[in-house]
What does this fold into?
Amino acid sequence: MGKVKVKKSDVWIDMTPMSDVMTLLLTFFMLTSTFVKNEPVKVNVPGSVSEIKVPENGVLTILINPEKDAAGNPTGEGQVFMSIDNTDQLGETLDLVMPDASAMDKEVFKREAMFGIPLSEMKGYLGMSTNNRQKVLPTKGIPLDSIDGGMSEFQMWVQAARSVNDNIKLALKSDADTPYKTVKKVMNELQDMDESHYYMITNLKVAEED
It folds into this structure.
């Protein structure tokens, strides 16, 4: 008895719809993603159970970092740095605080992920190479001492940022090892300016059950 031969046919799957979906997903993530700049100063923020989220845009972040010695131990002092997410507003803020800044200085400043150099050293700092700026910045910080009994440089930056964007939100980001006296001094500086509403950036942790 002869064998019955089954006719084989090729299976063809149209991958065009899948390719379209992958392209749409890739485009979506590219358009909605926020690129994080490389911050030369890193902090280990404390944990809390608060679920209040800091806005993603229009934020002046005030970073309070513990000053450390060569061995990595806190020296009892602290450093203050700032960042503004909007580069155009960052440049306008520099114009108010440092009116004599050149166009080149402004372009370099707008590319900075974080700033924290005393105004007396700003010109020389902006003239450095990128690698040198990244080495110098962690050793500096925005002065909190008042100038001739008036505003401090810290308050000048906050006031300028508020002038550029009246709706800008303030957020404090403090390292867990930052001395309390430094954090308190920053809060007092803000209070003197009637800036009493700001966010505290922390890591979310689960509340422990009793």
